């Protein structure tokens, strides 16, 4: 599944994949095996292993500095190995970020049953996307534009 889909996007070193650090090395290894460019973005340990917009922008910059165009963003939610589930507001902002930057979003949510402790309630990217699309259908032009531009590949949700 993952390898076949990534092979559709990665044509060579000119194509980059933004992937989180830390992570189980599936995406970084597959990107390397397909001769693509890995553009890491770093999870914020101080913010419960969260994802910040600034770090995603830095990931785009890393791709550009490597001479590559970012084609996809990988988000593992809940994270592996961190176990942190992303708040709904962050999930929504990532959808909008991908829409604005023409990134295919690989939402790896295979660990959604592994949310423990004080982690936020799990919110799938697929559910958030459907809600974004519904907002667009009720007249929210920004939501409509974002929903129309999102390319979501959802694993296990």
UniProtKB/TrEMBL annotation:
Gene Ontology biological process terms, A to Z: L-alanine catabolic process
Lineage: superkingdom: Eukaryota
Keyword hit for Transferase: yes
Matching InterPro entries: ALAT1/2-like, Aminotransferase_I/II_large, PyrdxlP-dep_Trfase, PyrdxlP-dep_Trfase_major
Signal peptide: none
Protein name: Aminotransferase class I/classII large domain-containing protein
Occurrences of domain Aminotransferase class I/classII large (ranges): 5-121
Gene Ontology molecular function: any one: L-alanine:2-oxoglutarate aminotransferase activity
Keyword set, alphabetical order: Aminotransferase, Pyridoxal phosphate, Transferase
The keyword Lyase is annotated on this UniProt entry: no
Family: Belongs to the class-I pyridoxal-phosphate-dependent aminotransferase family. Alanine aminotransferase subfamily.
Cofactor(s) listed in the protein's UniProt record: pyridoxal 5'-phosphate
Record text on subunit structure and interactions: Homodimer.
């Amino acid at each position: 599944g993952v390898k076949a889909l990534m092979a559709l996007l990665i044509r060579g070193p000119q194509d980059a994949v933004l992937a989180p650090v830390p992570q189980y090395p599936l995406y970084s290894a597959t990107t390397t095996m397909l001769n693509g460019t890995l553009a890491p973005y770093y999870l914020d340990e101080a913010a419960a292993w969260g994802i910040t917009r600034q770090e995603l922008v830095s990931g785009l910059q890393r791709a550009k500095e490597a001479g590559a165009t970012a084609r996809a963003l990988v988000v593992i939610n809940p994270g592996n190995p961190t176990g942190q589930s992303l708040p709904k507001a962050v999930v929504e902002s990532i959808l909008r970020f991908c829409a604005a930057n023409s990134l295919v979003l690989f939402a790896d949510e295979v660990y959604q049953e592994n949310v423990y402790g004080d982690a936020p309630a799990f919110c799938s990217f697929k559910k958030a996307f459907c809600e974004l699309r519904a907002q667009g259908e009720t007249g929210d032009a920004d939501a409509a534009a974002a929903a129309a531009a999102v390319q979501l590949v959802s694993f296990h949700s």
